[in-house]
Structures are given as structure tokens and as C-alpha cells.
Amino acid sequence: MTNRDDVLKNAMASVGLGDRPQSLVGGQLIDGQGDDITLVDPFTENPLFTYADAGAPLAQQACNCAYESQRLWKNDFSAAARGQVMQEVSRAVVNHCESLATIDAIVAGKPIRDCRVEVMKVAEMFAYYAGWADKLHGEVIPVPSGHLNYTVREALGVVFQITPWNAPIFTAGWQIAPAIASGNAVVIKPSELTPITTVALVTLAERVGLPAGLVNVLCGLGPTAAQAAIEHDAVRKIVFVGSPETGRRVASAAGAALKPVVLELGGKSANIIFDDANLEHACLGAQAAIFSSAGQSCVAGSRLLVHRSIQSRFIDMLSQGMNSIELGDPLSEATEVGPISNERQYQHVNQMIKHAKNEGASVHTRQPLNSRGFFVPPTVLEGLTNQSACAQKEIFGPVVTTIAFDDEAHAIKLANDTQFGLAGAVWTANVGCAHRMAEAVRAGTFWINSYKAIHVSSPFGGSLNSGFGRSSGTDALMEYTSSKSVWVDSAPTPKIAFGYVPS
Questions:
Q1: Is residue 346 very low, low, confident or very high in pLDDT (cuts 50, 70, 90)?
Q2: Which of 124, 206, 231, 264 is catalytic?
Q3: How far is CA 218 from CA 115, 128, 256, 417, 495, in A?
Q4: I want to staple 277 with a disulfide (CB 3.0 to 4.6 A). Which of 138, 239, 427, 487 is the partner?
């Protein structure tokens, strides 16, 4: 066993896990009974673990456990008590930050310093929604009929969530925290490629008071574990974070079961640079927008729209800047960009670059590493139109397509000429232009002179192929509850109705 293996297994042991990925159902770590799944270290390309798919029977067991635990969470814990437990979860995450970050750095290939930030954001998520747990209330409506009419917000029951491989613990916290703050139970299936920190998060939560079985984690595959959970009678809603292609399949399965869905899917976000922008600031922002996380982000600024008068200059700045980006071992403190998280995605990104070359693109690429691992160096594509494959399809890697625009109207047209509607940004010194772009560009999140700023308190989501519904802020609490309208006859004397006269 290599030292790298020791580091991983020690981190797993420190958060209460065994020496391999296991599902967490009803408070117990359980091996699956399905097909074998092998996890590979994206930095070394060496196998890390082989474990068994949870399968349909374990998924059904998880849903049953969630159903029973949700009744306890709703009836035996006051709203304030639920918030107090969530505050304890937040503190537990902070206390185990290094172990959680280490696991994701090795398994997902993310730089350790980025992983630490994501872990601390998860702690913030639980603290934020803990504060909302006892503040979910309805309203009194002055109806004209003489009734007292009021509404209450009720938990849905059991929610099934599917999270991706690009930000494992971040997306786990992003989904779990608002769901349980609203009084629900959760069955969650992280990506089969990066399941460990989701299990660790829930294990730590149970240590500090979260009822066993309130959140159950399935380590397994979509066609088996996820399909069984979607079909289970206890599940009232499905939340999916991932690609549009898989999102369509999830939505179809949920539709067949007549269950609502929140879809947080991909993007092809336009990062728009005007000629009056602070170009050094904009260049640093553009680098972060596409090269951080090796471009494996749904909001990545993968289409760089640059005013024609500064396009050549800006591409030169961007190309020179990316040569100083530190690629390397995700466990190294110096590493800024790690490998692509898995071989399948690595092959996809390289195929898209090859396709761009065949379409006539000029390719500016940072010097690659002379090592193993699924590394794609930061890459800038020049000379393609907005109709090219690399401008229309999600690459999900450190590859940006640059396109020139002539004026505001042209920039808006290019920005909206896509089947996605997730995010966007503009860089300009003109305040009026900035707000006009924010209004006109189709995006659920839009930044002005910045990129990638997000917070748990602000709603997040998109439209079209980027999905629908919102998964943070108070909007998420609405997604995880339903409104009940209660009518009380408050008239001083009963009214005659349908010819009946009281004696």
C-alpha cells in the first residue's frame, strides 16, 4: 500500500468510515450486493477501491428508513430543536475539515485548498439553514367570505437527491441542509465515482444528534439504486444535479411516477468583456471562470465574448496568464488546477479539443505536465463561431471558446444563442451597460465585474437545458415544502346553506 493510500484511509477512519465505500442506511454502514464499481485516483490512474453497487433492495430499505425517521424528526423534534442539531452538524464539519478535504482531493482530484473551501461552505450551509428551521411559517389571508383563512408550510416527507462527481461534499451539503431544515428526510445517491465524503458527512451528522436514518446514502448506480428510489412510494420529490442528458432520464422516470423534480444541469455561460473594462481584472476573472476546478463547473465561463477591438490583446493576456497556473498533485498546497476527475470525462474533453482543431480553431495551450494522470492543460480556442460544437456543447473541462462581438446588441444575441440558461457575466466600466446586460442575458445567476461568486443565501438555478427549480436561499425551502390552506368558519351564527335551516 502506498503512502497515498495510507493518507486516504486514515482520513476515512477519522470520520468514522471503514476501509472501503459503503452505503449508510438506517445509521449502519452496509455493503451493496450489486455489480462491482472501481474508483480510480485521477492523479496517479491507480485503483483506489472496488465496492459493490447498492442495488435496488438497499435503495428500498433506505426509503423505508427515511419514511420512519421523518416522522420522528417532524413529531419529536421542535423546529428550534432541529435547528440546534443542524448547528451541531455545522461544528462537526468544521472540526473534521482536513479529513473531508483530503478525501475529496484524492478521490475527485480537486486541489486540497479548494476542497477546504468547499468543506467550510458546507458548514456554512448547515448553519444558515439551521437559522431558518423555526422560521418557516404561513400567512393569514383576508378572504371576503368571513372565514379565518391561514396557510402553513408542510414538509414533503422523503426527498430523493442525486449529486455529481465534480463537487461531492459541496453538492451534498447544498441539497441535504435545506431539505432537513424544512422537516424532510433524505435519501441521497452521490456519484458512484465520488461517494465517500457524502457518507462521511452524514456519519458525522449522526454522531452529533441527527436521527439515524433521517439521511440515507446510497453508493451505487443510477439504473439500479436511483431508479428504485424514484419509484418508491415514500419518495415525494426528486432533485438531480448533473448533465442535461442524465437529467432528461431522471425527469422522465420521475414523470412516469408522477413526482415533481428539481433539475440543476449544465451551462454554456457567456463571460462578456467590453473594451472599457479593467482588462487585467477581467483577465484574472476569466481565468478563474474557466480554469478553476479544471473547468469542471456547471457555471464555468466557457464562452468568452470579447469586444472585437480588444480580442487579440485579451487572448494574448489570457494565454500568457495561464502559463503561470500551477498544475499538479491535488494534495500539494501549491496546486491550483488538478486533473480531470475521471477517465471518461478526460476522454470527452480531449475529443472536444480535437473536434475544435478539425473545425479550424487556433488552439492556445499551456505546457502539459510530463506525468501520469487525467490532466488537460488550460486551453483557449480562437477562430470558432458561436455555432461551433465547442461553443454550443458543454465541455466541462479547462477549455474556453473565444468569440468577438461588435456592440451591446451583438453581445446579447451571442450570449443568448444557446440552449442553456444558467449563468453569465459582464466586465465593463459603464454602469448602465452592466445593468442592461444583466437584464437581457438569459441566466439564473449573472455577475457584474466578477465571476463565480455564490452563497447559500442566494437562489441558484437555470432554465432550458440548465434545468428548473432553485436549490439555495429561501427558494430552496419553498421547493422542499408545500403550502396548506386552512379555512375556519368565523361567522357569529351559522349561515343557511342549501336550504338547511338549523333548529
A1: very high
A2: 264
A3: 22, 26, 22, 38, 56
A4: 427
